Amino acid sequence: MGRTVPAFRPALEHEIESWKDYKRALRPEEQKVFDKLMNFARIHADAGSLSARPMLSEILFMSFAIEQEKKIKALEKKIEDLEQKIEGKG
Per the confidence metrics, is the pTM higher than 0.90? Predict the structure, then answer.
């Protein structure tokens, strides 16, 4: 039986490739951030392949949000730990 929907990972790579002109217009340090964000989408490719989202960019943006939220939580934890040490509770 043939597939009507292309395999997710190649489709994701095609979507990432479609952003190449945008990436090229970024400053070099921003291009590194862009690449990091795209890697977040690759990390979450398994979840994306199970999603019924017709627009791959939605999956990209959700992957970015998940990874950024994880980073925010880790930073909040570090701040809380430092505050407790400063207050003598650590």
Answer: no
